[in-house]
Amino acid sequence: MAGLYAGTALGARGRGRACGEREREFCQARWEVEHGFLPRPFAASAAAPASTGPGHVSCFSLLIRRPCATDVATCAVGERIRSAPEDDVNVAQQPWQLIQAKQYAEAADAYSRSFAEGGGMIALRGRATALLLSGRPAEARADFARVIEETEPGHRGSGDYLRLGTCHWYLGRPAEAVALWRQGLSAPHTDAAGGVVCPVFLLYAGARLGDTAVRAEAERLLRNRWREHRRRVARDHASTARQAHEDFVHPGLYSWPGALVPFLVGAMGVGELDEAASRTSSDVLRARWQCQADFAIAVRALLESDTGGFRSRMSRSAVCPHGELEREFYQARWEVEHGFPPRPFAASAAAPGAAPDPSA
């Protein structure tokens, strides 16, 4: 069963189309981001597999898996990749390399310089990410809010809403966080499975805050997605040309992180989800998918009152070597840094040494 939801379909784009998806350069840049700017792209560990059997992710699927990638790929703002001298490309990559090296404060400064020099929304989003990672959520919040405000409504991505919500969570404002995660549900651009991560965050919030209404909302969204997928599987083949086109362009839960849905509705076990997350030839993608899987497993453990499982899997999500590319990583870091507080926003659960939200 895990292989069915491992992300094997072609053309995994999620909902909506960024302008860049019509450009050849877009696909190549997406490959770079997805593979973490490999120093030696085709060393043995990074080589494409010869097999195209079950669980294999095709090159095309890897190239356009996620509509809202970061840095050099065109993002939800629809900016096109420009031709540039090699020195310019190296300069653009340097801030992200600092993030990969866990030098977050230095990365924030580098992105600030890039933004001042005309780096646009890519540099602003990068700075917001670096600020959040370096423990400056109020400043990160301002940048993420600006990214959303200055992005055309038709080009907005759920990832920006997720991270802006996480900034509010860091600042002790869970109601605002939930509201933003809910807004992400209607963003034109979302994950490759068509909008799975936002319901997962809402489920996390409902469980963590003891909010039965939010939990019920998230569970309903996930059940609906699972029901739609089962209907699609039942009909097997498309009956019209338009339906065939839609199936090709929008693979739905066949594409990662679609496997999170059957797992969270109880139709898949922990071992199956771990297996689904491992079914890619890319070490970078495998780490990223496992980061998301660990977060989902932690949420389910919390719902089942398994405190040990919650802490164990959340801790794993928080130390993913490429976690900075996944939204769950930031939420997991908050849990670890705060010691998994039983009551997240009680006065006693405040972050040690943390300053209050200056705008509260």
Short description:
This protein is 55% helix and 0% strand.
Any idea how many domains?
1
Structural class: mainly alpha
User: What is the third-level CATH name, the topology?
Assistant: Serine Threonine Protein Phosphatase 5, Tetratricopeptide repeat
Task: Give helix % range.
Answer: 55-70%
Q: So how many helices? A: 16
Q: Kindly, what is the distance between the CA atoms of the first and last residues, rounded to a whole number of angstroms?
A: 47 Å
The biggest beta sheet reads: none
CATH hierarchy: architecture = Alpha Horseshoe
| Annotated CATH homologous superfamily | Tetratricopeptide repeat domain
Count all strands and give the number.
0
Radius of gyration: 19 Å
List the helices and strands and how they pair.
Blueprint: H1 24-34, H2 59-63, H3 86-100, H4 104-116, H5 120-133, H6 137-150, H7 158-170, H8 174-183, H9 197-209, H10 212-235, H11 241-249, H12 260-264, H13 270-278, H14 283-303, H15 307-318, H16 327-337
Helix pairs in contact: 3-4, 4-5, 5-6, 6-7, 7-8, 7-16, 8-9, 9-10, 9-14, 13-14, 14-15, 15-16
Explain this structure to me?
The protein has helices at 24-34, 59-63, 86-100, 104-116, 120-133, 137-150, 158-170, 174-183, 197-209, 212-235, 241-249, 260-264, 270-278, 283-303, 307-318, 327-337. By secondary structure, it is mostly helical. It has one domain (2-237, 250-345): Serine Threonine Protein Phosphatase 5, Tetratricopeptide repeat (Alpha Horseshoe). The protein is globular, with a radius of gyration of 19 Å.
